[in-house]
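Practice problem: predict the structure.
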Amino acid sequence: WDGIKDKLDVRGLRSWGQLLGMWFARRCTDGDVGVNQAIITEPSLDRTRFRLQTIEADRIQHPDVGHNNGVVHNAFGAPEKYFVARENRHGSQVTFDQGSVDEFPAEQFFLYANFSDDDRADTERGVSAFLQLFNMMADMGETLEGMAQKVKNAAFIGLKFKQHPDQSGYLFGPSTESTKADEQGRTRRHVNMVPGLNLNLEGAEDCEVLQANTPNEKFIPYIRFVLRGMGSGNPMPLELLLLDMADTNYTGGRALMEFYRAGVKQEQAALGRLASWVFEAWHEWEVRNNGLVVPEDVAQAGEALRHRWGAPGVPHINPAIEIKAAGEA
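Answer:
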C-alpha cells in the first residue's frame, strides 16, 4: 500500500493525500463527488493495475427524467448503479454529452456526498456545504465592493467654497476657470484644481475639506458579525477564520477550538470511510488478480484488512508549557 497509494490517480496528477484533499473540496463545494475503480490492463506485463477515476458532480447524470440524478436505487433505496455523462472537450470548453453515458455498478463506484444531519432519509445526492450561505456570501461581496468604491471615491479631495467673484466675474481667474455644457445642455462652471492654487477669501468666506468618513467605525464590526454567522454552521469560528483571538480569552479560545475539533472529527470520519473503501477494494483486487500474498497467520486471524487512518490533530497553545518554556529560555 505504501508503494502504490501515490500512484492510484488514473490521470497520474495527484498523490494519495492530494486526492483526499481534492475529494473533500469538491464534496464541500459541489455537494458530492464520485470515485470510480478504473482497472487498467497492461498486456506487456500480463497484469492489471488498480486505479481511481474522479467523477465531478455535474457529470453524474442521465438524460432519462426518471434517472436525472444519475443514480438507480433498489426497492430499499440503496444505490445499484450510477450513470456518468461523457465529456466533450473543445480547447478550453468542456461540455457533457447527455445522450452518451457510462454505467457503473455501485460496487465499484463511491458517491462521497455531503449529507447534513437534517437531510431527509431518502436523499439521493449531496448538497453543497455552502448552500445556505450563497445569498449571504453574495450580499457580502456586494457590500465589500460598494465599500471599496466609496474608499476610492474618498481618495479624491473635495473642497467647499464660499466666495464672491471679482470685477471680471471669475472666482479664480480666467486661467483656471472655464464653462462647459453638461449632458442636459446646462452650462456649468469648472475650476481646475492645480497644486499651488491660492484662494483669496474675504472675511465672510470659508473653504473646508469634505470628510468622507469611509469606512465608518461600525463597518468592521458589522463585517465580523456577518462572517461569524457564515462560519458557525460549518463549523469555522470567526477567530479561527481570521486567526484573531483578540476578542476572546484563553478559556473562550479553547471552547472555540473544541467546537472546531468536533466538526473536524466528523469530516475526518467521513473521509476515512471513503479511504477505507479504496484500501479494501485495492487489497481485494491485488489478492485476486495480481498475486498479493497475505501471510497465513494474518489471514486466519482475519487481520488482513484491519487498519486505522492517522488523521491530523488540531494543535493548541498550552499555557503551562508556554510558561515553563519561557522560564527555561
